[in-house]
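Journal club prep, notes for RB
We'll compare a predicted complex against what the paper describes. Inputs for the PBG case:
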Amino acid sequence: MFPTERPRRLRRTPALRRLVAETTLSASDLVAPLFVAEGRSEPTPILSLPGHFQHTVGSLVDEVKALQQAGVNAVILFGVPETKDDRGSGAWDPNGIAQVALRALRDTFGDEMVIMADLCLDEYTSHGHCGVLRDDGTVDNDATLELYAATALAQVDAGAAVVAPSGMMDGQVGAIREALDESGHLDTVIMAYAAKYASGLYGPFREAVGVQIQGGGDRRSYQQDYANRREALREARADVEQGADIVMVKPAMTYLDIVSDLAREIDVPLCAYHVSGEYAMIKAAGQNGWIDASAVALEQLTAVRRAGADFVLTYFAREVAEELGR
Ligand code: PBG
C-alpha cells in the first residue's frame, strides 16, 4: 500500500519550506542584553559569554550601532558599578553607571532604538540579593519596592523608554507604575520579568555583573520554583493587573510550556529571555566542535517564537541578526 498522506511534498525544496513555515524569526524579534561597567578604559571580555564584554560607555555606543546596522531594534542594559553597598544605591544614583550609559544611548539613538533598562538591585548590593535585607538576612519585599520605584525614576530620567523589573518582589510592577504615573511618565513601558525561575542557568550572567550571593545563598525565596507551572499564570496576571505592558518568561528553553501557557492566556505582548547559561552551553559545545552553534541558536530562538513569544532577549542577537541578513 502507498501512503495517501504525503507531508514530505511540502518539504522538498527550500522555497516550499519557506512558504509553509508557520514561524518566522527576524532581527526585529531580538533584544540584545548589554553590560556597561564603571571606571574602565577598555571593554573587558566576559569569559563565560564569548563575544560579550563589560563595555565602556564608548564601546557600548559602538556595539549598539552595530546592532542597529544588523537590524536589531532593542537593547536591554545592565550596569556594573565600581562599588556596592547594602542598599544598592548605585541603582538609583543619577550618576550611577547605568544612568550615565542610558543618557549616552538616548543622546545617540533617541527613539531609533528601544532602550530598555533592567531594573534590579543585585548588581549594586554588597550581599548580591535583589532586594534589601532585614537583620535576619531575609529579603524585605516592601522596603525593596521603594528602592525599585526610585530606580525606575532614575532610569527614565536618564533615557530608558522601557523599564524591566527583574527582582521578583511581589507588587513591584504596581509600585513602579505608581511612581512613574505620579511623576508624569505616562509613556514609560514596563516589561515585567513575570515568570522568572530560580535557575542554574544564570551563572555566566553573575560573572558578567560581578555578583556573588552572600554566604553561598540563592534566590529561591523570591524567584519561582521550577517544579511549578500554574503559578506562572498567577504571576503574569498579577503583573498585567498592576500595569505591565509586556510580560516575560525566563529562562527560555526549559520553560517553553510556560511560554505556551502565557501566550494562550495573557493578551499583552510576551517575550522570553534566552539566558546566559543557554548561550554559554551552545557556545561551549560549538567551540568543541560538538554542535553547529549557529544552527542550534537559530533552532532554539525559532522554538521560543513557535511556543508563542513575540520576541526574545538573547546574547545571540547580533550574531543571529547578521546571519539572517546575509
Ligand atoms: C537580576 C537578573 C539576573 C538576570 C537578569 N536579571 C540574574 C539573577 O536573577 O540572578 C540573568 C540573565 C542571564 O542569565 O542571562 N538582576
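Talking point for the session: The mean pLDDT is 97.
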